[in-house]
Please model this.
Amino acid sequence: MLETHLNSPVTRRRLRKGPAADHIDAFADWLHLHGYKPTSIDTLLRSLAGWTDWMLAAGFTAKELVPALDACKLEIEEEQCVRYRRGPNHHSVTAASVFIRFLQHQGELPLPVAPPSASDLWPILGEFRSWMRKHRGLTETTLDVYQGILVELLDALGDDPRAYSAEVLRAFVLDRARPHGIYRAKSIVVAVRSFVRFLGVTKAMSSGHGTRDPRFCLMAALISPPVSRRGRCRAGDRLLYRRRLRTSR
Model:
């Protein structure tokens, strides 16, 4: 029962008059059974009351809990944060998310549909991960970092390697690396270069060109100029890089 877990009669009255009223007793007991501490239960219920008050003011009903949560999140993001302001806040969103998860576990709301994975959207990413895992021994953590970068690459350029060129790839790398520091920039370069080398090997094998497609090997070499450990481009390497770039055009 709600009275067992929430001392404030005013907050109890707000919850019993709001959109969560039909399930609020079961929700309070569910929190207790799942190991929430009394102070955490009290905080969650008070925060939930702030959200249900907002729902009533915004015109949402008990059948619109999920849309109401999305709308509340959007309003909080758009408004400037004011300390101690009444109304919904990030704690309210957290409490509402827990309440909705409770209703989903109880079968009162449908479970959320999992979005398609990046490998489902871009099958070539699944092939890349498998190839890098088998032939380069990369860990799942490293592959996840690469994948986040390569999803942006595929969104920008598509998955047809025939559309790739050294200039296009370098433009992508420079655009994505510009807002970040040197270490993130290096990660972007390494991820794109590894992907291009993977294409060079797999496309060569499928087309019968041998073990490597020279076009992709050249693109991988031209994605970024060679630099020293101090981050400076050596004069001789810079000259060789410019010569390669001219001959690739």
Observations:
- The chain has two domains: 2-105, 118-248.
